[in-house]
Amino acid sequence: MIGDPVNQAARLSELAKAKPGRALAAAASVEAASPGEASKWEELGEVVLRGRTEPTALAVPRSSL
User: Fold this and answer.
1) Cα angle: 60, vertex 62, 11; to 5 degrees
2) Nearest Cα to Cα of residue 52 among 4, 20, 14, 13
3) How many domains, the chain?
4) What pLDDT shows up at residue 64?
5) How many CA atoms lie within 13 A of 30 on its CB side?
6) What is the span of the domain harbouring residue 9?
7) Which of 2, 10, 1 has its CA nearest to residue 50?
8) What's this model's pTM, rounded to 2 decimal places?
9) What number is the average pLDDT over the span 21-36?
10) Which of 1, 2, 6 is nearest to 26 (CA)?
11) DSSP labels for 2-55?
């Protein structure tokens, strides 16, 4: 697989290794989820992922905060 979504997923996986629960998602993906699923996540802030120039908003599961 190739492409920007794959690259973003790889960068998020790298960052998740340092987070409690080791789960991290792009906030845009959480916003696209069903309301029930989205309610289980909380925005964490923004980070500029390696290889990008624009920041990506992050989200973590509520139980990880």
Assistant:
1) 5
2) 4
3) 1
4) 55
5) 19
6) 4-64
7) 10
8) 0.83
9) 95
10) 6
11) -SHHHHHHHHHHHHHTTSGGG--EEHHHHHHS-HHHHTTEEEEEEE--TT-SS-
